[in-house]
Amino acid sequence: MEKVIGYYEGYDEGIRLGRDRVRQLEFATTTHVLEPYLRSGGNLLDIGAGTGAYAFYYAARGVEVIAADVTPGHVDMMRERISKERISGVTAELADATDLSRYSAESFDTVLCLGPLYHLRTAENRQSCLKECMRVLKPGGVLAAAYINRFFIAEYLIASGAKKSEASWLSRVAEQGTFGTDEQDPFLSAAYFHTPGEAETELRFAGFDVREHVAAEGNVFLMSEAVGKMSEEEYRIWTEHHFHVCREPSRLGSSNHGLIVARKT
User: Which of 39, 53, 123, 243 is most buried, taking the most CB atoms under 10 A from its CB?
Assistant: First the structure.
């Protein structure tokens, strides 16, 4: 995890979900989809919480939240905000998603796993993460898990000019879901990218009952310029349209992030 921690210590995760309308849509879709599943008075473990975007959002809505992250800088930032703004209902802790032994079995109503799966490069580590999520959830509890689509990332890197179209890396990502560890970009060298079907299979293998699978951003990256120029009313209408179609299976392949909602049966 050293590469992951090093990357995030030098990256401003705090602004990512609010940086522009394209990124805002990921947050809006996730909270929209989870709205029927979370209730005030429940408790939630946000593992891989980053700087706490979701943790603070749900704490403000009456959910008791533990926000855990493997990056010390993220935990420090959350603790500083909690102290500075005197926020109640959120505790920030340092934890690895593959080892949640500090938390008791069947102790959470909800677990958010919105970052760890695309930083665990082996199937064994991803299963360790998912089985730990299963262990700490109460019977009937809800897991929200996110992944990055391997086909989106390849096309996005070419379209953005970050990489040239070369058979070597394209075939590796398509077949294995990874870039080489010698990849210059520190995020890519430490990341794993799923296919939508594979992501569902991994959750089911860990024992989860998959309830929903949505395209968090849909293909908004293809129309980022147009979305940026929309009026507030136009953007509201377009967002509502996205909410209406984001569960359509054919949208999953073109979305950056996929979101799966599952239950512990």
Answer: 53
Are 184 and 112 contacting, i.e. CB atoms less than 8 angstroms apart?
A: no
User: Would you give the DSSP letter of residue 232?
Assistant: H
pLDDT tens digits, 181-216? 788 888 898 899 999 999 999 999 999 999 999 999
For the CA atoms of the chain, what is the radius of gyration? 18
* Token couple for 24: 């805002």
Cα–Cα distance between 222 and 166 in angstroms, integer? 21
Contact 97/116 with Cβ under 8 angstroms?
yes
Query: Mind listing the pLDDT tens digit for each residue in 153-188?
Result: 998 899 888 899 999 999 999 999 999 878 888 889
Strand ranges (E), 95-206: 108-113, 137-148
Q: Classify residue 161 as exposed, middle or buried by CB count within 10 Å of its CB (0-12, 13-18, 19+).
A: exposed
pLDDT above 70 covers a percentage of the chain that reads 93
Number of H helices, E strands in the chain: 11, 7
How far, in Å, CA of 29 to CA of 31, rounded?
Answer: 6
Beta bridge partners of 66: 45, 91
Identify the sign of the CA torsion 117, 92, 216, 190: negative
Strands 137-148 and 257-264: antiparallel
Q: Name which of 70, 76, 95 is nearest 3 in CA terms.
A: 70
